[in-house]
Amino acid sequence: MKKLVKQMVTALVDHPRDVKITEVKGAKSIIYELRCNAKDIGKVIGRSGKTVGAMRTLLGAIAARDGCRAMLEIVE
Fold first, then answer.
1. Long-range contacts, stretch 68-73, CB < 8 angstroms, 24+ apart
2. Tens of pLDDT along 2-17?
3. Are residues 30 and 63 in contact, defined by beta-carbon separation less than 8 angstroms?
4. For residues 36 and 19, what is the distance between their CA atoms, to the nearest angstrom?
5. pTM for the whole thing?
6. Neighbours of 69 (CB within 10 A)
7. Gyration radius from the chain CA atoms
8. How far apart are CA 19 and CA 38, in angstroms?
């Protein structure tokens, strides 16, 4: 899933080399912390948060199939 998140985000941003994703695993949950260039945060979030909301929905569906929970957080 980390690879999927990285692929989605690098397709959106102008500075793909600055994209860093940290995976924090829990008992039945995974948190993905996304860090990117400050100029690209607006592109990742999207208008009214629709872009990041869609990415979170995809992650949630994939994680539910595997029997766990996944969350995506944007860290500045």
1. 68/28, 68/29, 68/30, 69/28, 69/29, 69/30, 70/1, 70/29, 70/30, 70/31, 70/32, 71/29, 71/30, 71/31, 71/32, 72/5, 72/31, 72/32, 72/34, 73/31, 73/32, 73/33, 73/34
2. 999 999 999 999 999 9
3. yes
4. 4
5. 0.89
6. 14
7. 12
8. 10
Bridge partners of 21, per DSSP, are: 34
Give CA–CA dist 15/13, Å, rounded. 6
Identity of the residue numbered 36:
C
Report how far residue 52's alpha carbon sits from residue 50's, in angstroms, rounded to the nearest whole number: 6
Identify the structural domains of the chain with CATH numbers, from first to last.
Answer: 2-74 (3.30.300.20)
Both tokens of residue 66? 């595997």
